[in-house]
Write a structure and sequence with these properties.
This protein is mainly alpha-helical. It is built from 17 helices and no strands. It has a domain at 7-112 and 224-364. Helix content is 70%, strand content 0%. α1 runs parallel beside α16. The protein is globular, with a radius of gyration of 21 Å.
């Protein structure tokens, strides 16, 4: 969305990446500290920033698809957007961890083979199954990129199969993908004798394993919220279209069902955070003036470089907290914010001197797939 960039979406990205980073940098289990004064309780739910990114992606990808000529061009642009930063920050993470992590706290980041899942955006378990070699993410945060890529694939296929019916078909696909993960558990637990009688237990266990491997099944409803919001942003009215209304309600119910089922111990915090995210998007669409406090140049800029911050922050940030945080004494409460600022500086430099230059170079070269296509 370069030519028609919505500034408030970048502010939303700022919120998402900030709470994710502070969640990781203030978690006693990861930073090796039990100082309760390190953070506000709200950062306990900072992982919801990832789900916020998923909603933003559903919105942005819907826009991008409408402004892309072919499915090949769409994937080419996604690759150009994602790969340069992944290459840069994976190598930096690998080098810094090998240098600083003498205690091997991040053991997986010490093996160069673990660069492969990140470079390909493919779940390490798939590479392990294909090769018989033990693969892991070199950086724990990279798991969400695999989820994003799955959504790109599904949404692009649905869009280019029938552009006019994209929203209707996407609602149906989202509902099916969300439901499919729960079928094995229901049949195994509630119909165990019947399933055993026909020797289907292993089949359903394999089904369950595949649902976990292709984890979009657990997160599709978040993306679908973004897809729905984009339709509302365009001014598409659901009045008179029963399926679109029912489908949108079904997506919201399935979102609630997943939160209740898989995050029951954190239910009220998750629900509150989800409501805040949904309200922010509704305000963006209908009452943008109420969000002017977010329409800040610095916040938008951090949102623009949020992808780089997300890729670089976890292993290196936590290592810095563990190694140098204790030296700050009574100022330890400032450590997460200092590290966050450092990550922002690194991401800004990476964006200026690597991501933007690669993007400029590739834009100057005509695409053999569709030279005339708009770049989303």
């Amino acid at each position: 969305m370069e030519k028609h960039r919505i500034g408030l979406l970048d502010s939303f990205r700022f919120i998402a990446v900030t709470i994710v980073v502070l969640y990781h940098l203030t978690n006693p289990l990861t930073i090796g500290s039990h100082d309760a004064g390190l953070t506000f309780p709200v950062f306990r739910y900072g992982y919801l920033g990832v789900e916020f990114f998923f909603i933003i992606s559903g919105f942005v990808i819907s826009y991008s698809l409408e402004n892309t000529a072919t499915i090949g061009v769409f994937f080419l642009h996604r690759f150009k957007r994602l790969f340069p930063a992944m290459l840069l920050y994976s190598l930096i993470t690998f080098a810094v961890v090998c240098w600083l992590d003498i205690a091997h706290f991040f053991r997986n980041a010490h093996y160069s083979r673990n660069l492969l899942p990140g470079f390909t955006f493919i779940n390490p378990a798939i590479w392990s199954n294909l090769t018989g070699i033990d693969f892991h993410w070199i950086n724990g945060s990279y798991w969400s990129l695999w989820t994003e890529v799955q959504f790109y694939f599904i949404s692009a296929c649905v869009y280019f199969l029938n552009k006019k019916r994209f929203f209707t078909n996407m609602l149906l696909a989202g509902i099916i993908i969300s439901i499919v993960k729960d079928v094995p558990g229901i049949l195994i637990n509630d119909h165990n004798e019947l399933v055993s009688k026909y020797g289907l237990i292993q089949f359903f266990k394999s089904w369950q394993y595949c649902s976990e491997l292709f984890n979009l099944t657990f997160y599709i409803t978040w993306f679908m919220c973004g897809v729905i919001f984009y339709q509302l942003y365009k001014g598409i009215v659901f009045k008179g279209n029963i399926f679109r209304i029912a489908g949108s309600i079904a997506i919201l119910y399935l979102l609630y069902y997943d939160i209740h089922t898989y995050f029951n111990s954190l239910l009220w915090g998750m629900l509150a955070g989800t409501v805040v995210m949904l309200v922010l998007f509704l305000l963006l669409i209908y009452k943008k003036q109420y969000l002017q406090f977010l329409n800040n140049k610095l916040l938008r800029r951090i949102g623009v470089i949020s992808y780089g911050i997300y890729l670089i922050h976890e292993e290196i940030g936590i290592l810095l907290m563990r190694l140098y945080g204790p030296y700050m004494g009574k100022w330890i409460t400032l450590a997460p914010y200092i590290v966050l600022i450092l990550m922002i500086i690194v991401a800004e430099l990476g964006y200026r001197y690597v991501e933007r230059k690669v993007n400029y170079f590739t834009r100057k070269r005509p695409s053999p797939l569709a030279p005339e296509a708009k770049i989303a």
